[in-house]
Amino acid sequence: MSRYPTDWIEAGACLNADPDLFFPVATGEMGSRQAAQAQRICERCQVRRECLEYAMANSQVHGIWGGTTPEDRIRLRRQRSDQRRRGRRGRERVSAA
Ligand code: SF4
After folding, report:
1. Backbone angles phi, psi at 47, to 5 degrees
2. Which residue from 22, 72, 25 is spatially nearest to 45, judged by alpha carbons?
3. Cβ contacts of residue 19 below 8 Å, gap of 6+?
4. How far is it, in rounded angstroms, from Cα 2 to Cα 4?
5. pLDDT digits over 22-51, tens only?
6. For 57-66, what is each residue's pLDDT tens digit?
7. Domain ranges of the chain
8. In this structure, which residue's CA is closest to atom 3 in ligand 1?
């Protein structure tokens, strides 16, 4: 079950695109080419942010979401986690002072 709204899906620029581009089954250069094609579609998508946040909230580990690859989302998850940790430490220092 989704933990994030999905009302944006119908507005996606990929609605009629080939799903294989967004979930490439090919590996190597062919898979990279398909993913790059998908990312070009995402660049002009008006619900890119919603799509990315959906993928992040639901831990989507496969495919192109919001213009990001699975590796991009791993990096983003780490960045957000680091930011939350730094924010918590900052608040702890302020309250201890
Ligand atoms: S951001 Fe990309 S994957 Fe997400 S809805 Fe838009 S076109 Fe589709």
Report:
1. -115, 30
2. 22
3. none
4. 5
5. 998 888 999 999 999 999 999 999 999 999
6. 999 999 999 9
7. 9-96
8. 65
Residue with tokens 């990001």: 68
Residue whose CA lies nearest to ligand 1 atom number 8? 14
Q: What is the pTM of this model?
A: 0.86
Tell me how far apart the alpha carbons of residues 18 and 38 are, in angstroms, rounded to a whole number: 9
- CA 46 to ligand 1: nearest atom: 6
To test the pocket of ligand 1, the residue of 4, 42, 44 to mutate (highest count of ligand atoms within 8 Å of its CB) is: 42
CB 64 within 8 A of CB 21: yes
Please count the residues of the chain. 97
